[in-house]
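Minutes, project check-in
Item: structure for the 248-residue chain
Input as provided by the requester:
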Amino acid sequence: MAHAIAYEHLRGDLHRHGDAAPHSHPHNGPHTHIPAHRHSGHGHSHGLVDPTIKRSRAGLRAVGLSLAILGATALAQLGIFLATGSVALLADLTHNFGDAATAIPLAIAFMLRSERAEGYAGLFVVAAIFVSACFAGAESVLRLIHPQEPSHLLALAAAGAVGFAGNWIAADIRSRAGHRLDSPALIADGAHARADSYISLAVVASAAAVAIGVPIADPLIGLAITVVILRITRDSWRTVRGAHDRRR
């Protein structure tokens, strides 16, 4: 009988210890320290790159590549403009130089890894588009007042084709990166470049019009390009402004 009582007492002690002492099983209890040192699972983020750094690098790659493409496109068109004197080509190449310049604030914004900086970069993009529209419009009006027939029409058409290709490639790079990185400024700049690719085709139309004996078509096409650029300005403003409102 004494042995039975002692056995029951021992069972009771063990039962109470299991219920009330979570530290009795250090490898299975709630205070285990094993998960805190899981280097294979990156518990301490060893070896991982901050997502904002990855985003910054990807944005800089997209901006830098598109800048190189648009810069080369604009330089090629500049050389042809100096030989032809086409105001339609002038409108297109100045816009392409403006597109290349928008890469600077975008690159700075990605380097800073700041959404606020990206917002300002988007505003700069809109301003650059508007300035290029004003310049193209002014030159077109001057050519209407003082007509000057462009020469080297084959070179002029080639310049339009170069502008189309350069803008299309740059637009694809910026748009893909903008959607992947959720960057409204980069998305707006991509849409801007894609629209410019079609505008460059107007330069080809200008060369064709002059070739068939309608030289006044050159400044008129320049004015048409100006209107399209102004529309792009409005659309880009809406994109950048909408992103700003969503973040508020």
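Outcome recorded: The chain has one domain: 52-247.
No further action items on this chain.
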